Amino acid sequence: MPYQKATPETIEKLLQSRFSDEGFLSLSDLPKPSTFKDMDRATKRIVQAIHRGEKIMLIGDYDVDGVTSTTLMKMFFNEIGIELEWIIPNRFTDGYGLSPNLIPRIVGADLVITVDNGISAVEAARLCKEEGIDLIITDHHLVPKVIPEAYAIVDQKQADCSFPHAEVCGAQIAWYLIASLNKALNSKIDIKEYLGLVSIAIVADMMPLQHINRAMVIAGLKLLNRSELPAIRAFMEKLDKVTLNADDIGFQIAPVLNSAGRMDDAKWSVEFLLSKNIYDARIRLERLIDFNNERKEIEQQITDEAVALVNPNDKVIVVVGNGWHEGVVGIVAARVGRHFEKPTIVLTESENGDLKGSGRSFHVCDLFKITEPCRPILHKFGGHMAAIGLSLPKENLDIFRKQINENYAKENYTESSFDPDIIGELSFSHIDFNLVNMMKSYEPYGQGNPRAKFITKNVTIEDVTDMGKEKEHRRFTFSHQGVTQQAVFFKTKETFHIGQNITVIYGINENHFNNRVTLQLMVEKIIS
Hints:
- This protein is α/β, with parallel strands linked by helices.
- The chain contains 16 helices and 17 strands.
- Strands 13-14-15-17-16 form a 5-stranded mixed beta barrel. It has a 5-stranded parallel beta sheet with strand order 3-2-4-5-6, with helices on both faces. Strands 7-8-9-11-10 form a 5-stranded mixed beta sheet, with helices on both faces.
- The protein starts with a strand and ends with a strand.
């Protein structure tokens, strides 16, 4: 499928079309907390627990969304002077969310609140009821056919919920619960200040950066950039940044916050975010960076092993390794998927003998939809269009691989190299600061509002040099129809030659260096 010719006018028209339903919303457009089903009921019960001095416990999750949701709730309860015990399940010993494994640790609580999990916790909810514990579930994931029996369930994906936006993350729902409690308790705390952490969760959990998500991220970024939270100051200090943007969250902050839960225990990330002074924050940040560096090394090793095991004829890649680290298989799936340009599932053997792992989609494939019919042969399964988690008995592997590839074929996904994120074929003559400034007005970019990518054919390599400690990056001077552009290509082992004629796929950004601002192409792919 050929790409349309792109001009500044056609680019702006396409970017505008992503917001055609509602336009750009602001914080004044946020729906009221009471539009969530059970929000008022949950609020009333929590207020009652506070007034009675009951024991309240919070159950979070080990990803960035769960970590920030837990942090937000704990910060609010600290501000109103109420004790709140919290537990982040350990990925390796507890499993996901409110599981039966956690019940011995919450016995004695009067009220348990979940954030970013719980909508599938049928068995744990039953055990809570047996123990006389009232359970309030706040979650944002898909609602299963059988839902837990709980005092209140706040999840925007419930069929009878009137909240107008289906795609919001756990931290946003936690923030809404805080807003509702703040009003009910007449606490007068400025909960807008919490939007900085909420924006980190929205970006990290890959929510579409449209409607209220965009408004909350824009407001959140402004708050982060003037935040006095020691954790945020320590991050900016470490990144040597004066201001943070959505890319900084996605590529720098989120992986570091995620790394504790992947490699050890997510409690380290919550404790970092709750740091009371810059000294503690710096020390805790170094621990997280160590986890992240360890994660990168293991991830690279497993990626190399996984790539070698791929059957290139499969439409959906399913690879299994022995002793692969459970905490990184999701990232490995994304990297292998990008390498082969196919949806990918990476599995490893867990302690109970099951195969356990994660999948990541590629391009237009709805990975949740094509995996859903395989439920009868799976032990556990959950997720959404772009990412899934699952486990299955070893003996079901071959039939699972066969079924998921058949399900993919039934959906008639096109097998062309057409990339729907590429806006069009762009001439270098259109690349200037006016184009970049126009594209900036549609920030922040991310899920649902991807950063514009372009393709240019018949490009000549005028110069190429290696960069990086391991010479793993390339810097280029390209020319096209008499116009030259500077470019960088990160993480490539390919060799390129001066004079080579290529097709290049890229984004455009501003490069700030030595008080000079220049334009540079961020190369994603070079086709010889």
